[in-house]
Known about the structure:
single chain; 208 residues; alpha/beta
Amino acid sequence: MRGKLIVVEGLDGSGKGTQITRLTDYIRQQGQKVHRTAEPTDSVTGGLLRDALGGLVQRDVYELSALFLLDRIFHNVNTKNGIRKMLDSGYDVICDRYYYSSFAYQGMEADLSWVMDMNLHCPEILHPDVCIFLDISPEMGEQRLCADRSLREIYENTDTQSRVRSRFYEVFDLLRDSENIKIVDASRSIEAVSADIIKIYQELKKEN
């Protein structure tokens, strides 16, 4: 049976890593195969993106958008552990960030319709079975980042995260009739957030 593609999105500091770990563990406990992945990938293009996000190299926002598209195509089609291969092999795939992040982050400065069109209409880029958005305030994200990290990426500040959150919601409104998007209040305890995510996963698997 083909697996499900589950994307987890959220502001920086929203707890994506923690919740993806918990969901991955739960799926394994159910006897289901699961593959955890993330964007940017470990490809050459992913390395270029990490250098730019870390502030080591300056890149135009359209250049960043195009690099993310290239990395996402590779993420889907590579024959070793690409998303398509893993799904066809019966794995549920959990992806930390996907094209929604391109829409929210690069879509703040680049033409949003252009960024959305090249991702949504690329034949090689699969559409997720569900996108789970972990919603927190930018201020809470800032507090968590201060506690966890000494180095910041270029988007990791309260003003930018506030704009990103607004853009995420704008994008979700545009996609409400075509994409399965679930918003989870991530300001609560780890256990409460995890319980909601597991319920979303259980409902998704019932659709098989």
